[in-house]
Design goal:
four-stranded antiparallel beta sheet; about 10% strand
Length: about 260
């Protein structure tokens, strides 16, 4: 299935949107972990990424209703080039495309989402379940190009770090950005974990409706449609009012000036 190089006007279900946003959060943190400096210089960045990954994995399990934690190696992650090529051979391509395929056909495990996005090239994701893969397919077809960078196909498979069993979720929530869709989705899924985490979510996301439906607008169209009529209306008012006064003002004082008595 293909789509043009701008978000589609329709989205999948709200739960599908949430799954894709949490999965994208995980992919972005995996990228940070992989890009961190080696040795002591990158220790702090790696520790933060591992903490974020652990919390986001917890959020993903909560969102899908998992009864057991998802194994680390089966978390959503960007496809490596070899897996992408193997999966791509099983499907057709298009201008903007995203398709779900079982990796069992190439001797792998789980599901792959393979696609093409103008402007950034091949994109893909590996997921443990078809539900997450289907959510990511909708995500790749509907979101703006700028949001899809975490899913660019990498040259080699990036290893997923070993995650601890527990992290301070409240401290994690304090570092989330309420302006980011992915961060809001993670926070929404973590609600109800424990009182301290819930308090942190209420404080950090005060005034933010975590249950609000997503809004996707094709770039440029809305701004152009509203700006042009506004400018025309203002010009019409400014031009018409002064012209009426300029015609009437000279005429009014003519009578008293010419009728002065002896």
């Amino acid at each position: 299935m293909t789509a043009p190089d701008y978000p589609l006007p329709t989205l999948g279900g709200y739960e599908t949107y949430q799954l894709a946003q949490i999965a994208t959060f995980i992919a972005e943190r995996l990228t940070r972990h992989h890009a961190s400096a080696r040795g002591r210089g990158g220790r702090a960045a790696r520790a933060t990424a591992v903490r974020d990954l652990t919390a986001a994995a917890r959020a993903l399990d909560a969102a899908v209703g998992a009864t057991e934690p998802t194994p680390t190696g089966r978390l959503p992650r960007p496809l490596d080039l070899a897996s992408y090529t193997a999966a791509r051979e099983l499907i057709s391509s298009g201008p903007r495309s995203a398709d779900v395929v079982s990796l069992a056909g190439s001797g792998g495990q789980g599901w792959a989402v393979v696609g093409q996005v103008p402007g950034i090239g091949p994109v893909g994701a590996a997921a443990d379940t078809r539900d997450i893969a289907a959510a990511l397919r909708v995500h790749l077809l509907t979101r703006p190009v700028a949001e899809l960078a975490p899913w660019i196909v990498s040259g080699a498979a990036a290893p997923v770090p070993t995650l601890p069993r527990q992290v301070d979720l409240a401290a994690f929530v304090e570092q989330l950005d309420p302006a980011q869709d992915t961060d809001r989705a993670v926070a929404r899924a973590l609600r109800g974990t424990d009182r301290r985490t819930d308090a942190a979510i209420r404080g950090r996301f005060h005034g933010v409706d975590l249950d609000a439906p997503p809004v996707v607008r094709p770039p440029g169209l809305t701004a152009q449609a509203t700006a042009v009529p506004g400018r025309r209306a203002r010009r019409a008012v400014v031009r018409s009012v002064p012209r009426r006064f300029m015609i009437q003002r000279p005429a009014a004082p003519i009578v008293p000036n010419t009728s002065a008595g002896p």
